[in-house]
Amino acid sequence: MPIEPMTSPLAHFDDWFASATDSGLKDPNACALATADADGMPSVRMVLLKGHDERGFVFYTNLESDKSADLKANPKAAMGFYWPQLGRQIRIKGPVNPVGGDEADAYFATRPRQSQLGAWASDQSRPMAGRGDFERRLAEFGRTFEGRDVPRPPHWSGWRIEPVRVEFWQEGEFRLHERLVYLREGAGWRTEMLYP
How far, rounded to the nearest angstrom, does the alpha carbon of residue 169 sit from its chain's CA centroid? Predict the structure, then answer.
């Protein structure tokens, strides 16, 4: 059965994401994030989607991480969701911009305390002599913020992919898949069916 276009890729994403969430999958918000550095060398890693709306798709990270260095040098990215149990995949790509400080603060406040402390303690992507070093730093920041809320570190925030292309893929028998792509056109979208 062909994938039917919806009013927008966000409505389509909401529908499929709800199905993935309701199916009981572990971390349905896990996605592959592809970036490239200033020389065009690509890199991919798994991240967790932490928000999405008509403005785009948001994830959070250390602003001194490799992914943030890539995004500062080359502010474009691609994101891919794959739910094999549902036979579905979504691919998103577009320019990337930092989220606002208030938005990052609001999300940071919802994180578990240990995750908040970890954002302070981790020199993400940098060499570490041993796990003990990280655990000592974690304990130090635990003492620093003992008895009070942990503020968002200045080196930790979010990025938003503003989609210009969103593709929905539905698995078919004998690899006769269904593919529907939404392409940004001005303030709206057009859709195309693609060969499998």
Answer: 19
